[in-house]
Amino acid sequence: MDFSFTFDDNAEGWTVGFADLPSDYDQSIYELDHEHRPLPDGLEGSGIYVQGHNRSDDLFMFLKRRVEGLQRDAAYEVEVSVDLATNVSAGLIGIGGSPGESVFVKAGASDVEPVTVEDGTGHLRMNIDKGNQSRGGAAMVVIGNVAHPGVTGREFRIKTLDNDGRPLTVETDGEGRVWLIVGTDSGFEGLTTLYYDRISYRLRPTNNG
Hints:
By secondary structure, this protein is an all-beta fold. It contains one helix and 15 strands. Strands 1, 4, 5, 7, 12, 13 and 15 form a seven-stranded antiparallel β-sheet that branches.
């Protein structure tokens, strides 16, 4: 089954969350923000805007959405393609890492809803295995970063990322549902702003599904 979201009129059921930061974080320094809005000047259409200042050296900003209509308790291979609007050029140097190459884009799926839970140190962590920064996990794979070699100045340009040839596997729940999740896992200790312009998923039953 194919699921495609272009965010022309609204967020199409996707919601935004933040993890890998203190549960009592100071909004004035983390500057977390998100909303459905028109894309920046020079680009057509609308998208989901996400912003965060990585004060924790490990900020994860994510979007999630549940889909249904799949086979119950079945295994699926997951392929993902994402269009991001980014204004970060390649080869830049930043605190803790590059503002482009050290902001890793991940995508995946889970049979349980991806949510944040507070750990023993007072930090919000994901309840799924997303991996950490440049490493993927059981629920998410790294599909690229936010650096765009064609960006000049502060303009935003579209970058397409996917996991072509590197599918991950997810099992649906007893109702034939699964959660989709995309996000950025940052090692850059600065402000990241981006737009999700399109998110597309293809789920194929595996031979042993």
